[in-house]
Amino acid sequence: PPPNFKFFLPAIPFQHTMRSLATATVTVLLLLLAGMALAGPDFQFTMQIVGMCPSTNYCMGKGNSQVDTTLISATDAVTFNVTQHIGAYATYEEVPVYYPNGTYQCAGNVTFGIHNFRDHALYFSTWGPSAHYFPMGDQQVFVLGAHITGGTGQFAGASGVLSYVAYVDNGSSDFTMLLSVASNKGGATSRVK
Description:
Largest sheet: 8 strands, antiparallel, barrel
Order of helices and strands: HEEEEEEEEE
Distance between the termini: 45 Å
Number of strands: 9
Radius of gyration: 17 Å
Strand order of the largest sheet: 1-2-3-4-5-7-8-9
Number of helices: 1
Structural class: mainly beta
Helix content: 10-25%
Shape: globular
Strand content: over 45%
């Protein structure tokens, strides 16, 4: 990767970028829906995770307990707010591997609990022709869809889909992501009705 940038990002024309962003967003949504239909998950959540990628092959982040609110109105169209709470939190780790032929693999985990009790975890992996990333002004947007490959605690035996949309300022290794999970295992309070 270029020495002044934490991620490998090719230049992409704006028209192609918007079409690709729309395609990637639809792909992630279809993966999420397919995971729900195939595995019959009855558990789902979305949360904000903030973190950093100290190298091109390791990213980590944390999301506190939170209430995410999306409001739709005639004046503002859509507003989104994340209210952080003190207490239990989630940690996120991924290990992406980029190959010279343009393919990549990614594996990782999301753990849940408090600092000395983290018995609940989800494991995920994905591979494909390329990581999906798109320039957006002074930022880059990343999209990932992955299979849930198992878990521990409340997620023991889990299957389903994990996805995220993340953004990073150009030249920075810090990211903010919206992580979404649809699984057949999880806590009792997030059951799909």
